[in-house]
Protein backbone atom coordinates (compact mmCIF):
# COMPACT_ATOMS: atom_id res chain seq x y z
CA UNK A 1 0.00 0.00 0.00
CA UNK A 2 2.84 2.40 0.79
CA UNK A 3 4.28 2.05 -2.71
CA UNK A 4 0.81 2.64 -4.21
CA UNK A 5 0.34 5.74 -2.06
CA UNK A 6 3.82 7.03 -2.98
CA UNK A 7 3.12 6.47 -6.67
CA UNK A 8 -0.25 8.23 -6.37
CA UNK A 9 1.34 11.17 -4.55
CA UNK A 10 4.18 11.44 -7.10
CA UNK A 11 1.63 11.56 -9.93
CA UNK A 12 -0.34 14.31 -8.22
CA UNK A 13 2.86 16.31 -7.60
CA UNK A 14 3.65 16.07 -11.32
CA UNK A 15 0.12 17.28 -12.08
CA UNK A 16 0.57 20.19 -9.67
CA UNK A 17 3.89 21.20 -11.30
CA UNK A 18 2.26 21.15 -14.73
CA UNK A 19 -0.72 23.14 -13.44
CA UNK A 20 1.53 25.69 -11.72
CA UNK A 21 3.69 26.12 -14.86
CA UNK A 22 0.86 26.09 -17.41
CA UNK A 23 -2.22 27.53 -15.70
CA UNK A 24 -1.78 29.12 -12.27
CA UNK A 25 1.60 29.97 -10.76
CA UNK A 26 0.05 30.31 -7.30
CA UNK A 27 -1.09 26.66 -7.16
CA UNK A 28 -0.35 25.01 -3.82
CA UNK A 29 -0.28 21.22 -3.63
CA UNK A 30 -1.20 19.38 -0.46
CA UNK A 31 -2.62 16.08 0.71
CA UNK A 32 -4.30 14.92 3.90
CA UNK A 33 -4.84 11.22 4.53
CA UNK A 34 -7.27 9.62 6.96
CA UNK A 35 -7.34 5.95 7.94
CA UNK A 36 -10.06 4.21 9.91
CA UNK A 37 -10.87 0.61 10.74
CA UNK A 38 -14.53 -0.26 10.21
CA UNK A 39 -14.24 -3.92 11.23
CA UNK A 40 -11.64 -5.91 13.10
CA UNK A 41 -12.61 -9.32 14.47
CA UNK A 42 -11.68 -13.00 14.18
CA UNK A 43 -13.01 -13.15 10.57
CA UNK A 44 -12.25 -9.88 8.81
CA UNK A 45 -10.44 -6.54 8.97
CA UNK A 46 -11.70 -3.59 6.90
CA UNK A 47 -9.52 -0.51 6.58
CA UNK A 48 -10.76 2.70 4.95
CA UNK A 49 -8.28 5.19 3.51
CA UNK A 50 -9.48 8.64 2.49
CA UNK A 51 -7.42 11.40 0.93
CA UNK A 52 -8.14 15.08 0.51
CA UNK A 53 -5.85 16.47 -2.18
CA UNK A 54 -5.26 20.10 -3.15
CA UNK A 55 -4.31 19.96 -6.82
CA UNK A 56 -5.20 23.50 -7.81
CA UNK A 57 -8.70 24.69 -8.50
CA UNK A 58 -11.49 26.02 -6.29
CA UNK A 59 -11.76 23.01 -3.93
CA UNK A 60 -9.86 19.86 -3.00
CA UNK A 61 -10.44 16.52 -4.65
CA UNK A 62 -11.39 13.50 -2.55
CA UNK A 63 -10.28 9.92 -3.06
CA UNK A 64 -11.03 6.80 -1.04
CA UNK A 65 -10.00 3.18 -0.97
CA UNK A 66 -11.07 0.21 1.14
CA UNK A 67 -8.90 -2.78 1.98
CA UNK A 68 -10.52 -5.95 3.31
CA UNK A 69 -8.50 -8.81 4.78
CA UNK A 70 -9.12 -12.26 6.20
CA UNK A 71 -8.02 -11.98 9.84
CA UNK A 72 -6.49 -15.45 10.02
CA UNK A 73 -4.42 -15.34 6.82
CA UNK A 74 -4.00 -11.65 6.01
CA UNK A 75 -5.15 -12.37 2.45
CA UNK A 76 -7.29 -9.84 0.63
CA UNK A 77 -11.02 -10.57 0.67
CA UNK A 78 -12.79 -10.31 -2.67
CA UNK A 79 -16.47 -9.41 -2.76
CA UNK A 80 -17.24 -12.77 -4.41
CA UNK A 81 -15.61 -14.55 -1.43
CA UNK A 82 -18.45 -13.48 0.86
CA UNK A 83 -21.49 -12.59 -1.26
CA UNK A 84 -23.26 -14.53 -4.01
CA UNK A 85 -23.77 -12.29 -7.03
CA UNK A 86 -27.28 -13.13 -8.22
CA UNK A 87 -30.50 -11.43 -9.32
CA UNK A 88 -31.63 -11.00 -5.70
CA UNK A 89 -28.44 -9.07 -4.89
CA UNK A 90 -28.85 -6.97 -8.03
CA UNK A 91 -32.39 -6.09 -6.91
CA UNK A 92 -31.23 -5.22 -3.34
CA UNK A 93 -28.59 -2.88 -4.75
CA UNK A 94 -31.08 -1.27 -7.16
CA UNK A 95 -33.66 -0.76 -4.37
CA UNK A 96 -30.98 0.65 -2.07
CA UNK A 97 -29.83 3.19 -4.64
CA UNK A 98 -33.41 4.37 -5.26
CA UNK A 99 -33.99 4.64 -1.50
CA UNK A 100 -30.69 6.46 -0.79
CA UNK A 101 -30.98 8.94 -3.66
CA UNK A 102 -34.68 9.76 -4.17
CA UNK A 103 -33.73 13.07 -5.78
CA UNK A 104 -31.95 11.33 -8.67
CA UNK A 105 -33.83 10.15 -11.73
CA UNK A 106 -32.21 6.80 -12.50
CA UNK A 107 -32.53 5.21 -15.91
CA UNK A 108 -33.48 1.71 -14.72
CA UNK A 109 -32.12 0.04 -17.86
CA UNK A 110 -28.71 1.68 -17.34
CA UNK A 111 -28.91 1.00 -13.59
CA UNK A 112 -29.52 -2.73 -14.13
CA UNK A 113 -26.79 -2.96 -16.78
CA UNK A 114 -24.12 -1.23 -14.67
CA UNK A 115 -25.01 -3.17 -11.50
CA UNK A 116 -24.93 -6.40 -13.52
CA UNK A 117 -21.56 -5.49 -15.06
CA UNK A 118 -20.13 -4.66 -11.62
CA UNK A 119 -21.32 -8.00 -10.22
CA UNK A 120 -19.89 -9.96 -13.16
CA UNK A 121 -16.55 -8.11 -13.09
CA UNK A 122 -16.31 -8.07 -9.29
CA UNK A 123 -17.30 -5.20 -7.02
CA UNK A 124 -14.07 -3.35 -6.28
CA UNK A 125 -15.06 -0.62 -3.82
CA UNK A 126 -16.69 -2.16 -0.74
CA UNK A 127 -16.10 -2.61 2.97
CA UNK A 128 -17.68 -3.96 6.15
CA UNK A 129 -19.49 -1.52 8.45
CA UNK A 130 -21.92 -2.10 11.35
CA UNK A 131 -22.97 -5.62 10.30
CA UNK A 132 -23.44 -4.52 6.69
CA UNK A 133 -21.41 -4.24 3.54
CA UNK A 134 -21.12 -0.80 1.99
CA UNK A 135 -20.84 -0.91 -1.79
CA UNK A 136 -19.73 2.24 -3.55
CA UNK A 137 -20.08 2.96 -7.25
CA UNK A 138 -17.55 5.45 -8.65
CA UNK A 139 -18.27 8.96 -9.79
CA UNK A 140 -19.85 8.85 -13.24
CA UNK A 141 -21.81 5.65 -12.62
CA UNK A 142 -25.37 5.32 -13.92
CA UNK A 143 -24.97 8.33 -16.21
CA UNK A 144 -24.44 10.86 -13.42
CA UNK A 145 -21.53 13.28 -13.29
CA UNK A 146 -19.11 14.91 -10.91
CA UNK A 147 -21.77 16.79 -8.92
CA UNK A 148 -23.42 13.58 -7.70
CA UNK A 149 -20.08 12.00 -6.73
CA UNK A 150 -19.87 8.30 -5.96
CA UNK A 151 -23.10 6.54 -5.01
CA UNK A 152 -23.35 3.88 -2.33
CA UNK A 153 -25.65 1.35 -0.74
CA UNK A 154 -25.62 -0.86 2.37
CA UNK A 155 -26.58 -4.52 2.17
CA UNK A 156 -26.67 -7.05 5.03
CA UNK A 157 -23.35 -8.86 5.48
CA UNK A 158 -25.02 -12.26 5.89
What key attributes describe this structure?
158 residues; alpha+beta; 30% strand; 6 strands
Describe it for me?
With 158 residues, the protein is of the alpha+beta class. It is 34% helix and 30% strand. The protein is built from 4 helices and 6 strands, in the order αβββαααβββ. It has helices at 2-22, 79-82, 87-100, 108-121; strands at 30-40, 44-54, 61-70, 126-129, 132-137, 151-156. A 3-stranded antiparallel β-sheet has the order 1-2-3, with no helix packed on it. A 3-stranded antiparallel β-sheet has the order 4-5-6. Strand 4 and strand 5 (132-137) form a beta hairpin. Helix 3 (87-100) packs across helix 4. The chain is globular, with a radius of gyration of 18 Å. The model has no long low-confidence stretch (mean pLDDT 87).
H/I helix tally: 4
- Which overall shape is indicated by the principal axes computed on the Cα atoms? globular
Multimeric state of these chains? single chain
The helix content, as a percent range, equals 25-40%
How is this fold's topology laid out?
Blueprint: H1 2-22, E1 30-40, E2 44-54, E3 61-70, H2 79-82, H3 87-100, H4 108-121, E4 126-129, E5 132-137, E6 151-156
Antiparallel strand pairs: 1-2, 2-3, 4-5, 5-6
